[in-house]
Amino acid sequence: MTTTPPPSAGPTGTGPLTPTDHRAFAFLGQVNSSLRQCLCTLARHGVALRRDAPERARLLLDTVRPWPLYKGGQFLFDLMEWEDLMVDGDPPPVMSTERIVAACTLPVRLAAAATEEAPAVTKLVPGQRTTAALGLPLSLLTTTARSTLLSAAQDLTDLLGPGADPDDDAGYATDPEPVTDDTGAELPPLEAGFYLYEDIALGALSVLGPLLADHAPTDPAPPA
After folding, report:
1. Could you give the CA distance from residue 54 to residue 117 in angstroms, rounded to a whole number?
2. 119-131: burial string, b at 16+ Cβ within 10 Å, e else
3. Backbone angles phi, psi at 160, to 5 degrees
4. Who has the most CB within 10 Å: 60, 105, 154, 181?
5. Does the structure show a pLDDT above 60 at 9?
């Protein structure tokens, strides 16, 4: 009996995917893994906050629950089935606070620049529309340049200062409240279920709190 050999997977016999396809999937897989690591780390910070400071956790959640940003996050969390991504497989290693803050710095700066109150124009002057249109980009560039210069100066101070320890973790403009450590040994395990999204929100408020506070208005309005 004669059997027909299976068709060749491609012109070179290596399969239909090209080397570019494999490299593209490698990048997307890295993004997927980093997202899982970040979400799981934030959730574990949230579990720690809910365990160690239940009253603060309750007040934080009561504050953000009415906000569209929180509700939209809940919708995307359910729609994209991120819970399945987080709990599928062995727990990922803890992502450092510095890495999470660094990844969120640019989005927070963009949000701060976009929501900054523009100066009122009292009378019509030539070129004011162009000036107003350029106001937001220039404000963002100014903020970014100032932050870059301050960071560079701080890095030089750390490198050249006496007794500087190169292994010390990077600091914040304001000290974060020490809820847990980034070593992972003191963070409680992930708790899948009803509180998972809430734990991510709590963890984000805990880890990103100092970054958000640095971009708060000069005279913030009292909470409603």
Report:
1. 35
2. eeeeeeeeeeeee
3. -95, -15
4. 60
5. no
